[in-house]
Design a protein that fits this description.
Oligomer: single chain
Distance between the termini: 47 Å
Largest sheet: 4 strands, antiparallel
Structural class: mainly beta
Radius of gyration: 17 Å
Order of helices and strands: EEEEEEE
Strand content: 35-45%
Strand order of the largest sheet: 2-1-6-7
Length: 96
């Protein structure tokens, strides 16, 4: 399963299943059709209320990947925003 931030650009999911701006999707081979996972996105067809729907999830919208059976998985910190400004310099402190 994946937890998706539906507020991110490029997310295509059925809006009726989104709760508090997020959706949990089963991405197992038995729950999806034509699943494609690349470095940029996860896409597949899945049934919602019996209707097949094309799902597109940019990788930066994936918040968590976990196993439903035991809840184990990993959380992703997707708050990094790249910019070319001088503000990206690290701040260092000298310790004695």
């Amino acid at each position: 399963h994946i937890l998706v931030d539906c507020g991110k650009s490029g997310v295509v999911v059925p809006k009726g299943f989104v709760k508090k701006g997020k959706i949990v999707l089963n991405v197992s081979s038995s729950a999806t059709e034509n699943r494609l996972i690349t470095n940029d996105s996860i896409s597949f067809k899945a049934r919602f209320s019996g209707r097949p729907i094309k799902i597109i999830i940019p990788c930066e919208a994936v918040l968590t990947i976990y196993a439903q059976e035991n809840g184990e998985g990993m959380f992703f910190d997707n708050k990094f925003e790249a910019s070319g400004g001088e503000n990206n310099k690290p701040s260092l402190t000298i310790l004695d």
